[in-house]
Design brief:
The structure is a homodimer. By secondary structure, chain A is α+β, with helices and mostly antiparallel strands. Chain A contains six helices and six strands. Chain A binds a DNA duplex through helix 4.
Chain lengths: 147, 147
DNA sequence: TTTAGAATTAAAATGATTTCAAATTAAGAA
DNA sequence: TTCTTAATTTGAAATCATTTTAATTCTAAA
């Protein structure tokens, strides 16, 4: 948080209250919010804020590498994530939730380690795992027990 | 190709000329076309075909597991891929092209092999590799030699 | 051949995101 | 502090991929 503020100042990027509020919100909401999520959350405190500001700030933060836009979309919407370090994402096909996967095991793949494949220079890898999350798993088990 | 036709018939799905043409096109264009790509390609041969038909057929083929919709989007558009077998995708950040990664190495990750992680049941993994493709790499080298 | 259900069509609707021009704000200079 | 200019925000309109709709046209089975 602090380092972003400092960093942005060094880069000569203006720190408006709106931008501060958006950064603050993202810091405290690591559950991959959409632009709309951010907008709705800040609506009360900043009634005059425009959704266009949310989009432009998210774009700014993305361009400067503070946040990542996931390739995965929540019901057609882009969602965002603080890029603490390289991590992957798990998607629950039942409840639509996105869970961070901190496991390093994907990063140990030969391709990733070598940083290249068939002449392609590989910089980054984003893995999306699809399945059923533990919460939904438990629900399913309970249901089947009831029968 | 043949097996899809047979399969669809068995499933009681009507094989209209439009659907046949779309399947045929996808078979011959493995470069991850968008709905618009499909539509434009068939426009000449089927001038009356609607883009809505393209979308509904892609949806049908996806629902039946013949094609895969990538999470990655080409300039904001969904793109599709025959799912021969589980494979991953490389995205060139310079030329926007998407290249199939047949390498099995990602699938050998402990998470994927175990099929679970932290209580989540993992069914499938889609990896997106980002970087610079061999074509663009060569161009860059040539340029830097010219200097 | 008839007919009911399914698929196609063109147009309108939707909804996330982007663009725009006008109004406001930030920040450096005086 | 006040002035000034450039950057930012705003709200509304525009964009654009995709979906929906209702009417028309096909398909396939009887």
């Amino acid at each position: 948080m602090k380092y972003i503020i400092k960093d942005l100042k060094i880069k000569g990027i203006t720190l408006t209250p709106q931008r501060m509020a958006i950064i603050e919100f993202l810091k405290n909401n690591l559950n991959h919010p959409t632009a709309e999520d951010v907008y709705k959350a800040l609506e009360e405190k900043y009634p005059s804020m425009s959704i266009a500001t949310v989009y432009s700030t998210l774009e700014l933060l993305k361009a400067n590498g503070y946040i990542q836009e996931l390739s995965i979309r929540k019901r057609g919407k882009a969602c965002f994530d603080f890029t603490s370090k390289n991590h992957h994402h798990f998607l629950c096909l039942k409840c639509d939730s996105i869970i961070d996967i901190e496991s390093e095991c994907i990063n140990t793949c030969p391709i990733v380690k070598a940083g290249q494949l068939e002449g392609c220079k590989v910089g980054e890898i984003q893995a999306y795992l699809y399945g059923v999350c533990s919460g939904c798993n438990k629900k399913t088990i309970k249901k089947s027990n009831k029968k």
